[in-house]
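Re: your question from the hallway

Yes, I did run it. Sequences:
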Amino acid sequence: MLSKNKIKHIASLHQKKQRELRGEFIAEGTKLVMELLNSHFEATGIYATSEWFENNRLPINFTGEKSIVSMNEMERITALYTPSPCLLTLKTRNVVFNASIANSALVLVLDDIKDPGNLGTIIRAADWFGFRHIVCSEQTVDLFNPKTIQSTMGSIARVNICYRNLETMFKELDGTVKVYGALLDGTNMLDKELSDAGIIVIGNESRGISETIRPYISDKIFIPSFHPDDLSGGAESLNASIANAIICYEFRRNRMISK
Amino acid sequence: MLSKNKIKHIASLHQKKQRELRGEFIAEGTKLVMELLNSHFEATGIYATSEWFENNRLPINFTGEKSIVSMNEMERITALYTPSPCLLTLKTRNVVFNASIANSALVLVLDDIKDPGNLGTIIRAADWFGFRHIVCSEQTVDLFNPKTIQSTMGSIARVNICYRNLETMFKELDGTVKVYGALLDGTNMLDKELSDAGIIVIGNESRGISETIRPYISDKIFIPSFHPDDLSGGAESLNASIANAIICYEFRRNRMISK
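Structure:
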């Protein structure tokens, strides 16, 4: 059984301010919980039904708190609409990496992604296509938001993510680094040679790439659309996480053809 | 000012059962509202602030109800977290089309997509890549769910969408129609020749393509992943709307290279 204080503590982690104060976040659902238990994140507590503990084994080096909770209690701590039988609390981590890694690898830069589900989906697709580094602008939604964590489906354990002031970062960059950005006045990305290293900037859901960031884009690209018929118009844009995935795919595509 | 009954009526359209009973749905936000006002959907009412009416012009053939509402009233009828200054009610439409269109065009088939945001995002990407026909299984989330409508960003006006029993539909198909489906034991789609006509099946978010539908798949494909380093594992799967967009992109890619 959980104490009132413990319920209050865990439920408080739904809020960004409390996550920052306590340096903790939550993850729910067996698949995600097991993946994060076996990652480099430090788990501080596991809260699950007795049935869950019977069917799942904790790693031997697990040193956090272990509590059997009822589904009634779970409803009071969950951030999900329908609670899962297990909830993990973990320490947040601040990854710091030097943007000069863009000299040798592809780095995603997120310019104010606001929707937690989009951020999680971007991280998951980045992981699928082997992108190991993401830099988020300071106004990007919190990585440790429960909705972001859930939608990464565990990919958060395999991608390095740091928050930085983007202008400061761009100023520090070596002038030879290619900076790709999806912009309306860009070139069809299928007509360009895409590099194996550099930066790819993904803009905000409503306004795209910020005015202050545009001067740093060396290679403007766009994702072509297709109109097989005479219908006037068509979608004006793609969802940010969709655009990100298609760009990541295209940058890796030539390397993924097996024959 | 809105009557209590009118507020109740509009708010009831947040629920599927009421939408079906009344044959109406809602759309919010200036961009989406203007796009649907100028589409083949029949608008039954527009509810907006006086400022909105000053700045936006209704089509001359608009015959629905027009009401000036305060932001306070808007809060009682909106399905959004933060209400927009305008809300449109429209008549639902049941599109019916013969699946034999797959003999000459690419048709998307959605096998139990459950998340309204995913459904909307799939429709938006389909529109971008010129897919004009989507068949949803009967268990797919309701097209007229406010979250679906919002995330189509207006693409719902340009894509024909019908709900059908998928097994019945597959049985009716001419045996020569190619049926592509993303499955774990499929072929890397980059190693296959992709046709200009046929069906592409997108599976449910958690279980992929149903057991009952798999026998109808003639061409199993998968989206390759990429691992530049020795990191064990990687994401196990992609979000359904991401997978859909990448597959749509790949089917159109050769036609979109401009040089």
